[in-house]
Design a protein that fits this description.
75 residues, 1 helix, mainly beta
Amino acid sequence: MAEDTSATSPVVVKVEADGPLEVQGPVTIEGSDGVVLDVTERTWLCRCGQSNNKPFCDGSHRRSGFNDPGLGTSK
């Protein structure tokens, strides 16, 4: 039996350069109406606003020329 690590696995959100947010870890994605869209361990969320499958990335950032280095800033 596989060990349940959902309580101990952190959720990590990585801002990809010129692309989506990569979300890793046990996550539930809900719409604004509360409907569960996905329960997953890994997904990519749109940052460019052009996806036809929002909130999920469909690769539209490549066609639209979305440009953002995805670099964090020091606090």
